[in-house]
Amino acid sequence: MTQFIVRRVLYMIPTLIAISIVTFLIIQAPPGDYLTTVVAKLEAEGSYVDRSQLDALRDRYGLDEPLWGQYWTWISGILTEGDFGRSLVYDAPVSSVIQDRMGFTILLSLSTLAFVWAVAIPIGMYSAVKRYSVGDYAATFVGFLGLAIPNFLFALVLLYVSHRYFGQSVGGLFSPEYVDARWNLGKILDLLAHVWIPVIIIGTAGTAGMIRIVRANLLDELNRPYVTTARAKGLPERRLLMKYPSRIAASPIVSTVGWLLPSLISAEIIVSVVLSLPTTGPVMLTALESQDMYLAGGFLLILSVLTVVGTLISDILLARLDPRIRYGKR
Amino acid sequence: MNDFRDPAATTSTALLDTPGGDQSEAGTVGHWNLVWRRFRRHKLAMASAGVLLFVYLVAIFAEFVAPYGGSTRFGDHQYAPPQIIRPVDTSDGFDLGMFADGYQVEVNEESQRRTMSTDPSETRELGFFVKGEEYELFGLIPMDRHLIGPKDPDQPVFVLGTDRLGRDMLSRIVHGSRISMSIGLVGVAASMVLGIIIGGVSGYFGGAVDTAAQRVIEFIMSIPTLPLWMTLAAALPQDWGPLMKYFAITVILSLIAWTELARVVRGRFLALREEDFVEAARLDNCGTFRIMRKYMLPSFTSHIIAALTLAIPAMILAETALSFLGLGLQPPAVSWGVLLNEAQNVRSLVTAPWLLIPGIPVVVAVLALNFVGDGLRDAADPYN
């Protein structure tokens, strides 16, 4: 097991390096370097452009060096000091802007993951066991619909319905009186009262996909000889289902975290923009609209790294669950 | 989309399926004929194929189908509500045809805001093949007939309402279908080339090449797509025209979409390369590229088509999402996502809920493509 974990962690390193390089290249992509943007912004505000200040910035980002030198300045700043550069829009260090937002993104993504499992696994299992029943068709239909409706559209419709018929906004994660309040029991309860709406919206597509996977996996297992044997031995249907096929059908469920997590984070961003949640989404959009590339790049880097780490954790869980993966060649 | 069947389960069919694909030994019926028969049994897929045909026809003849131009403004009809067309009019005797109400403006005393509503006292008539705005079909044929529209051009009717600037929603949706429905096709064509080449090489040669290709694919799949797309789209030069932007967005979308296809192709190649007919071709001193192209690829073309069809909806959704966020295509280009961008805040939603209507064609098109893709996937392997 230790060997497996070490090997997986080592595999992760080139991926992380590649992510950082891609992010850096994207930061560099807009025409003109960081200083041109700064100067343009200062001039637009009508303030005086200080030469020594510019030189300091040029020195700070290594802008006189070749591209790989700039990359090195950037990445070593992040690794040693947690310095992601400076955001133009917020006029603050990128790291502090990100810090405020990332917690809610992680919270929202993990709750959605839990929601997807909690809903999709029972429904998928029911669909497989009661194949071609009314319930199965209903689940399949809802599943297709969940995949076809863009989650931001779902959010918009909900926004409209709640505003029109219930006279309240579903946006945000807190009631107005709690937004700036310190953390206390009331605030946590208020958060719980709000968080389920975005969780459902973000989770629909994932749930729909997961139902199909669970159903297909379990259907493959249900016709295996060992199931027939267990049934012939007189094992009650429910225990039989839980004891054998479900466990084998469960391993692909864990392994799908690898694609579920990136898609949940994507969904979280766009839904947060619609519902104006205090997560990374809206800030990232603002950053991109004003080409505040260090901020946008910082978000991209951290979101990608988090996804890779999440996938790593799921792989380790999977190996705990299924010895074939631990010892076999991947 | 990730539940592609185990490639090994279908290898036996390759024995039946000779390289040409057409001269199958399974009776006297050709491979594509069998695929078609199998597909036809899938009722939902057949119906969806009909829907798709309709949507693409509308997209192709957009200027003709739409009552007005995509950016024609009716300045005195801002936020006009949608209305239902009546087949019978009793205001002046009994008339059959297509009739709608007129419009009136109400001013709220308190807020001084003008709202438009329908005016039942006035009747406006619609007709087929009416004379309207002049346009050039396909940019070539000058015409002024529209499939449906008001009989009197000075008395416009807006079946799906108008937006903030008084532009007809129906016309904009019809014009938007062109970009929304084509971006999937173009994007999938681009990712097909990459996917087949990389997946093919990776599956055929195996070994280090395969490992490297798989690492790259895993890497791309591990990045959350939307943030990456958003960042790439925002990094595009802002002075690019709509056409350049369109192609750039397509390329950005297909940069990620090819991975899924490469996986399918690789799986097929891995399974097929040990087959007897491939071995025979190799012993005949047939070149590697020729074996891949002439012997292996044709035997799973139907699988590739199925996988491609299933990749289109994801592209449509991605373009819609990007344009909705304002990072994809920009007005004056019209796509369903661009239209939904207008509905981004609660205030305009409450004033004009019909701004959400462009979401319906998105859902319909995506559903139909998914059903057709599923049908094709089942039919791709008609032998079991």
Short description:
Helices cover 78% and strands 1% of the residues of chain A.
Explain how this protein is built.
The complex is a heterodimer of chains A (330) and B (384). With 330 residues, chain A is mainly alpha-helical. Chain A is 78% helix and 1% strand. Chain A has helices at 2-28, 34-45, 51-61, 67-81, 94-129, 134-148, 151-165, 185-222, 225-232, 237-243, 245-255, 257-275, 280-289, 293-321, 323-327, and strands at residues 86-87, 92-93. Chain A is globular and about 85 Å long. A four-stranded antiparallel β-sheet of chain B has the order 1-2-3-4. The radius of gyration of chain B is 26 Å and the shape is elongated. Residues 1-24 of chain B have low confidence and may be disordered. The interface between A and B is large, with 57 and 44 residues.
Largest interface: A-B, 57 and 44 residues
Number of helices of chain A: 15
Q: Which structural class do you get from the secondary structure elements of chain A?
A: mainly alpha
Mean pLDDT of chain B: 79
Q: Give the helix/strand class of chain B.
A: alpha+beta
Large-scale geometry of chain B: elongated
Q: Helix count of chain B, per DSSP?
A: 14
Strand line-up in the sheet with most strands of chain A: 1-2
Distance between the termini of chain A: 14 Å
The percent of residues in helical segments of chain A reads over 70%
Radius of gyration of chain A: 24 Å
Number of extended strands of chain B: 4
Sheet with most strands of chain B = 4 strands, antiparallel
Unreliable segments of 5+ consecutive residues of chain B: 1-24
Tell me which oligomeric state these chains represent. Answer: heterodimer
- Major beta sheet summary of chain A: 2 strands, antiparallel
- H/E topology pattern of chain A: HHHHEEHHHHHHHHHHH
